[in-house]
Amino acid sequence: MSEGPDPAASTLPLRHEGPSLSFLHPEQDHPLRASLSTEMHVRKMPHVVAPARVLQLVMLTGPQDARESLALLARRFAKDGPPLDEDIRFLTRPLGALSFAWERHAEFMTYTFIAPGHQGELFDLAPFAEIADWANALPGRIIRSSHISLIAQEPSAAVIRSHFAADDLIISDAAHGKARLWSDFRLHPDGFGRLLIHDRGMSGIDASQLLQRVLELGNYRKMALLGLPEAQAATPAITALEKELTAITMQVAQADTDDGQILDQLTALSASLAQIAASTRYRMSATRAYSEICIDRMRRLAVSPVEGYRSFDDFTERRLLPAMRSCEAFSRRIDDLSRQAAWASDLLRTRVDTALARRNRDLLASMDRRTGLQLRLQHTVEGLSVFAISYYALNLLHHMEEALSHLGLHLPEITDALLIPVVIFVVWRSVHHLKKTKRDTGAEH
After folding, report:
1. Is the per-residue pLDDT at 5 higher than 60?
2. Do residues 279 and 386 both lie within one domain?
3. Could you list the residue range(s) of the whole structural domain that residue 408 is in?
4. Of 53, 390, 411, 433, which cross-links 424 as Cys (Cβ 3.0–4.6 Å)?
5. Which pLDDT value is given to residue 11?
C-alpha cells in the first residue's frame, strides 16, 4: 500500500507495431492533471474482511499540528517507502501486523489502524498494543475515537449486553441487509466509542466501503455538531443586539432625537454584529457542509431498522437535524439583523437628507429675501447717486458761471434753473448706460 496509485500506471498503452509513438507531450499537461487524476483513486479504506478489528483516532489540528504530524509520519515510515511530500493528504502503509491509513482534512486528521483476522475479545485493545505509545504522541486534540469489531458469526444477546448499554442500544441492518450494526454511541471507559458489525454476506470491497462510510458518517457528524456550542454561545449577544436595534429604530422615529447620537449607536451595533458574523461564519458554513456529507453517507449506507430498536438513521436525524436547524436559525438571525441594521441606517440617512433639504430650502429662501433687499437698496443707492452726482455737477457749472462773470461774460439768471433738469437727465442716462453695458458684458462671459 502507498499514498495512492500512479496516474501514469493506470493509462492504457497504445497498441501499435513498429517504433514507439508519442502522442501526448508532458509540456501540454495542465499542472493539476496528475494530482486530480490521483485524487479520484485515493481515500480508499484498505481491504478488510471479517474478522477484523479497527481503531480510528480523529484529531483536530492546526497548521503547526499538521506539520508535526507529517514529520511524525516521515520518521515512522522513513524506511518503508519513498519520502513523503509536504502536500500529501492520504497515506496507507503496513504497520507491523497492522494496516495503517492516514488522511488529512481541512480541520482534522484521521489515523486508522486495522488488525486483520483477530478473533479474540470483541473490543480488546491488545491487537493495537504496538502502536499505543506512538498514538499517544499524535499532535492535535482528539475529537473522536472509534473501536470497530467486524465479525463473521452473529453475536449472542449476552455478548451484546456485556459490551453495550441496553438503554441506548441501536441496531440496524446495512448494505441492503448484508450487514448488521450494533452501537450505543457512548464513550466507554477505555476512551473509545464502540461499533459492532456482523458480516452477513458481504463480498469483494463491500466490507471496506461499509467501514469507511460508517466512520465518515460518525466523523462528519461530530464535526458538524461543533457548530452548535458556538451558535449557543453567541445567541445571547445576538438577542441583545436585536433589542438594541429595536430601541434605535424607535429613536429614529422620534423627531427630537440627536441624529449624531443615533448614528454612533448604529455604528457600534454594526461593528459588534460584524465581529460576531466574522467569528462564526466559518464554523456555520462548515457545519452546513458536514451535515450534507452526513446525509449523503447515511443514504449510501442503505440502513433499515430492526424491529424493537432504534436505527442508525433515526439516531442521526434525531441528534443531528435539531443541531443543524439551530445553527441555520442562528445564521438567519445574523443575516436578518444585518438587513435590519442596514434598513435602520437607510432610514436615518433619509431623515438626515430630509432635514438637510429642509435647511437648504430655508437657506435659499433667506438668500432670496436678502437678494431682494440688496436689489432694492441698490436701486435706492443708484437714485441717490444720480442726485449726488447731479449736485456736484451743478456746483461745478455754477463755479464756471462765476468765473465767466468775472471775465465779463454774464449768463442769464435762468441758466441755473434750466441746467438742473438737463444735468439730472444726463447723469441718470449715463448711470443707466453703464449698468446696461456691465450687464451685457456679464451675460457674454
Report:
1. no
2. no
3. 376-440
4. 390
5. 39
